[in-house]
Write a structure and sequence with these properties.
This protein has helices at 15-20, 35-38, 44-47, 86-107, 144-148, 158-168, and strands spanning 49-52, 56-60, 70-74, 111-115, 132-137. By secondary structure, it is α+β, with helices and mostly antiparallel strands. It has one domain: HIT-like (HIT family, subunit A, 2-Layer Sandwich), CATH 3.30.428.10. The model has no long low-confidence stretch (mean pLDDT 84).
Length: 171
């Protein structure tokens, strides 16, 4: 029997898929269930794709740190930044700039965390396929929920965020 403890509960059952590692690649190859290789085959809405280029695409993170957290991903299945060719590097940089502008316009982001985790030991959840994170930040966006309760409150559904950012994307 459950004893009342005067705590409210904020349930986030969608996070269980991430915690359990569901839909994670089974190996390091492109054909081993890599989501970054599968996403471009989907519609923008189903894949949460914000924008597509010739060498890279921008996609919302399915398990975001903040609303609007997206990633810039090369189509080509490579794990290292040093494996990208000049065209991929240039478009990755261009898409990162466009992501910053779109997030500022669509959500009034006041700052950003931008970066890559290269390799599992560096924190990459999917180390076999390079991806650059663009995480919008606002003053006070780290409050008691993530610090004390290890819970992030996201005020917008991913589909709505994708639509908003796709409309704000220029170029």
């Amino acid at each position: 029997m459950h004893e009342p403890d005067n705590f409210d509960r904020l349930w986030t059952p969608h996070r269980m898929a991430y915690i359990k590692g569901e839909n994670k690649p089974t190996g390091s190859g492109a054909d081993d269930g890599c989501p970054f290789c599968e996403i471009p085959k989907l519609s923008d809405e189903d894949g949460l794709v914000v924008a597509r280029g010739s060498a890279v695409f921008a996609v919302l993170n399915l398990y975001p740190y903040n609303s609007g957290h997206l990633m810039v991903v090369p189509y080509r299945h490579v794990s290292g930044y040093d494996e990208l060719d000049a065209t991929e590097v240039a478009e990755l940089g261009d898409f990162t700039q466009k992501a910053l502008r779109a997030l500022r316009e669509a959500s009034g982001a006041q700052g950003f965390n931008v970066g890559m985790n290269l390799g599992h030991v560096a924190g990459a959840g999917i180390a076999a396929h390079l991806h650059q994170h663009v995480v919008p930040r606002w003053g006070g966006d780290t409050n008691f929920m993530p610090v004390v309760a290890r819970t992030k409150v996201l005020p917008q559904l991913l589909a709505d965020t994708r639509e908003l950012l796709a409309r704000a994307w220029v170029g």
